[in-house]
Protein 1
Amino acid sequence: MTSVGWAEHERAVERLRASYAAIPPGSPVRLAKRTSNLFRARQATTAPGLDVAGLDGVIAVDPVARAADVQGMCTYEHLVDATLPHGLIPLVVPQLRTITLGGAVTGLGIESTSFRNGLPHESVLEMDVFTGAGEVITATADNEHADLFRTFPNAYGSLGYATRLKIELEPIKPYVALRHLRFDDADLLAKQIAEITETREWDGQRVDGLDGVAFEPGEYYLTLARWTDRPAGAPSDYAGQQIYYRSIRERETDLLTAYDYLWRWDTDWFWCSGAFGAQHPVVRRIWPRRLRRSDVYYRLIRLDRRFDIMERLDRRAGRPERERVIQDVEVPVDRLREFLDWFDDEVGMRPVWLCPLRLREGTADGERSWPSYPLAPGTTYVNIGFWGTVFVGPEAPQSPRNRAVEAKVAELGGHKSLYSEAFYDAETFDRLYDGANLAAVKGRYDPHDRLTTLYDKAVRRQ
């Protein structure tokens, strides 16, 4: 865990300012950051970037106020290490350890508490943003920089970079009791999601976390999580030989420590570790436990891309060319069955992750608007995550499956996250993500266009 004080934080911000001053006037400004959880390539550059060294820690945790001041490059792994000893966690803890707080706010994040707490940016009380003009702006929901505060989520650094965020925390018990509910009918699944989201309980018991998995057509599961300090038996260990996602099919109830619950998906990168052999019993026994984590698998993916390993093996075996389909999309819960049926017919990738979400209620200023990712207040959505490849043949370079996903999600009144590849034309993109507002806010805080626009980042991959 990286802990820093206020003085050390200020020194890190000064280094950031100095690195900005060293970039020639008129040159593009971007982070000098080696790691990423993004799945879209960008143009290589040797130009100097912003020095964010020393901006990856927790500044302070206030257990009484249930709040924390956190640096923008701090990972949720380090943040949880600081808050969990106080019996507290962020309101939403994204599922992968190395997602940063600043990244989850500017790039959106989601997890099983999103059905009641919304997305990570909705628990931000204030944030310091280093803008394209080289200034540090403190933005809140009701100060003179409220436009930056509200537009920053889903801007992916096109409006600046968060150096500090003050966020709300909530209590959690030492253990998490799980119940896995199976559904054979997608309409019934959607109905149950809607009811639990409204009541925040099931069968008379409180529900603290809610997500699910669609394994096959007609085989759907919801996992209901309840914080508890009274464990019934020994907690399971899915960082060892057992694999979490398989347990959903195999048992009706389960128990995890709070820590292991937060990172239950990270150990096997949901189910994607199977591509590297990490789920084979023999390989798993010799694969070091400390290296069973998402950032390790991500580095292996980068190696594959660099040397075209999978592509060469496919050519040698005479297999069709693959299209990489790695996306998270949100559709209204009453359109969930329609999307899943379409997805089975047109893409055919399983399993897929299901995570209900709803804009958070009860904020100080009522329902807040987030124009760069406009979800409708009072509407329950389901995030559907799918990550893999499909054989499509010579059309693969045109990304036909990804383009079809974009069109279907828009047709159903949903949205698509922008951490991966996107193919929208500029007019459609501006309509979906309020490009006019983005341009206006960018013009105020980056008047000389030092930062890459969101469209250039997400679609043109600059």
Protein 2
Amino acid sequence: MTYLLIAAGVLYVLVRRFLGEPLNARDLLAPPVFLLFFGIRATTDFHASYLLPLAAGFAFGVLRGITTRLYERDGHLWQRYTPWTLLAWVASIGVSTGLGFLIGGHAPTQLSIGVSMLGELCAIGAKALSTGVPFAREETRGPLARFHDRRGSS
């Protein structure tokens, strides 16, 4: 059940970011913090064999962050994943899985994805801060309101 919830959460983030969304600090920070928290809690014994896959995951997260498009809209930053971002996600999963088989172990899924998203956070955060454009304010409406606003219906 935990893996299903993680997969649903990651899919939700992916879809939102491919559609394009305002870039606010909470949406940038929450996924890696949440996954790291639960990943660390799920780790009963930390093994040295986790280091290489986690380092690779962080590096691929940075790559995803570099491939994410940032742009100004309505006076604040927006983000949108690109096809290159998707390629980086696929490569990250492949390398992480391959390293797990090669060295005979892998870190808990939540921890792996959390470290990867932390790398993405670092790259996107650095890019965002260098633009001089403010982050978006946090929304008080639900996530589907943005979808309806784009279509011209309320």
